[in-house]
Amino acid sequence: MAKPERAARGAVKQKERALAPDFARGLMLLLIVLSNTVFYLWAAPQGPSGWHPVEDGTVDRAVQFLMIVVLDLRVYPLFAFLFGYGMMQLYLRQSAAGTPGRAALVLLSKRSVGLLVFGFAHAALLLAGDILGSYALAGVVLGWLFLRRGNRALAVWSGIAVAVLVLTSLVPALLAIAGGDLGPDQFTAGESTTAAYAAGEPDYLASMWTRLRTWSVVTFAGGLLSFAGHAAMLLGFLAARHRVLEEPHRHLTLLRWTAVLGVAVGWLGGLPAALGNLGYLDVPAAALTDTGALHGLQTGTGLAAGLGYVAIFALLANRMSDRAKRNPAVVAVTAVGKRSLSCYLAHSVLFAPVLAAWGLGLGEKLTSATMALFATAVWLVTVFGAYALERAGRRGPAEVVLRAVMYGRRKTDAPVANR
């Protein structure tokens, strides 16, 4: 009987890693932890969007403005791009070692199953807004459909995915805005984000049930219906084929144009929602909800911003001299990227018990500005922790478990963190 096909190579060695992808993941996690802060402002009165509170302080309003323009619906496409990029890197590495294509896809499917389990536990215990599950699900579907396709097919399907996003989100939003059809002045507000994420629930078991309900929607709707995430992941596949992040010096024109145009389009697309939420733009409250025109404008332009951020991170990595790359701060941020799964989960370990009502309840006292400071401090804690692990030559604990799921009990390469 024929033996089952298996991966030809184990975990990635330290010398195989490039700076830019890990550096980008490390900075991405700062943006993610900042974007998650709105889930924990559970005592503040919520604005019409259900995402941000109504606040009077100048600093709080300034922080909220920046959050809506820079982060809302912009960080998740960034995560999806880097997730897809990492998937293709792993697939190409296995293929180069002689692993059959199907066996390489099975290996990646094991990884996705592991991430789905991590996501379920993450949501049950701490954070309903877990994004591991949705991208793990999307990764399985898109991986089997597209990882073995050629560059031309990937380019075509990436273009189709972007077109679907534009046609379903951006075009309807622009038509509604141009026609003045922004929704009724009176509407019934839906469930606020803090309620859906159970941050204000004092009963831990009850909060767990709420988190799992929300997570199931985020995972399955996001994994199967998030056109921005799908487009970003496919573009990540294509970029990895061309080693855009490993060899940014060969793609400087592309990266510069992507950085400038992506950030400009993304920030301009988020500006009306920010002004509307803060009351500087007179629009119906319905326009700011998840089904409103301004939310559609944010969704349709979020992919551009996410790609712009990736390009900026790659350009920063390319500009660094060999001496700068050995700078402790750069090494520490890159170490976070190498242990991105562990650090992402650590955010919630440090957030939820301190901020949620079932824990210490500090979220009741914080505002947008003070919450952003708290989130930055949490990210810095993970930076120091990742740096300590890097100095000790150890992987993150979540990465150790995930690699066991992927590669079994076989002997792996050097004990350093990797994808």
From TrEMBL:
The chain crosses the membrane at residues 23-42, 62-83, 104-125, 131-147, 154-178, 215-240, 252-275, 295-317, 344-363, 369-389. It comes from the Bacteria. Pfam families: DUF418. InterPro entries: Bact_Transport_Assoc (IPR052529), DUF418 (IPR007349). Residues 239-408 form the DUF418 domain. Keywords: Membrane, Transmembrane, Transmembrane helix. This is Membrane protein. The gene is sam37.
